[in-house]
Amino acid sequence: NAGVMQNPRHLVRRRGQEARLRCSPMKGHSHVYWYRQLPEEGLKFMVYLQKENIIDESGMPKERFSAEFPKEGPSILRIQQVVRGDSAAYFCASSPETSVYEQYFGPGTRLTVT
Amino acid sequence: LAKTTQPISMDSYEGQEVNITCSHNNIATNDYITWYQQFPSQGPRFIIQGYKTKVTNEVASLFIPADRKSSTLSLPRVSLSDTAVYYCLVGPGAGSYQLTFGKGTKLSVIP
Hints:
The complex is a heterodimer of chains A (114) and B (111). Chain A has 114 residues and is mainly beta. Chain A is 0% helix and 49% strand. In chain A, the strands form 2 sheets. In chain A, strands 2, 4, 5, 6, 9, 10 and 11 form a 7-stranded mixed beta sheet that branches. A 4-stranded antiparallel beta sheet of chain A has the order 1-3-8-7, with no helix packed on it.
């Protein structure tokens, strides 16, 4: 049973470009979460999605960031007009419907903005 | 959310038992205590969760005193592969999806 998959693992963008991060949850999981980890910091919650629904985006910056989890395909975290401060590791996690606190994390995407 | 305090780092020799203590003085009645492990360049991995007394699984044990103001993660006979950052999380159990990670404890296992 494949775990949570994220791609790309590493992404380099110039300031002002767009970054698109993808996450495929574990088989059978319908809940997806995105977290951001700055260097030497713990993970910070960004957004919680179910298929075609954003449940909680309270941790997401108000501008330039958006997330979706379409009916078909992976969840996508999109960052428009990236700035240097967006450089971080972005982790996706998924959980089954019955245990939202037991989250399984992917390997992360390391975004570097130059 | 209850604030947690844990040591920034710990060193241990291979084969020793390691105990990492987490303080959570303002833990709420419905809060659970959960520990995650994170290796470099990987996402966190769920280790163990408990509410009170002692919980044991194939990886670790979790000791929680009666007042629940602290908890101790116990790793038996650590090996080099246990070198990682260990996070203590406190929050509502079932139904709480917004995991709150602090800076964790960086455990270094020495040969």
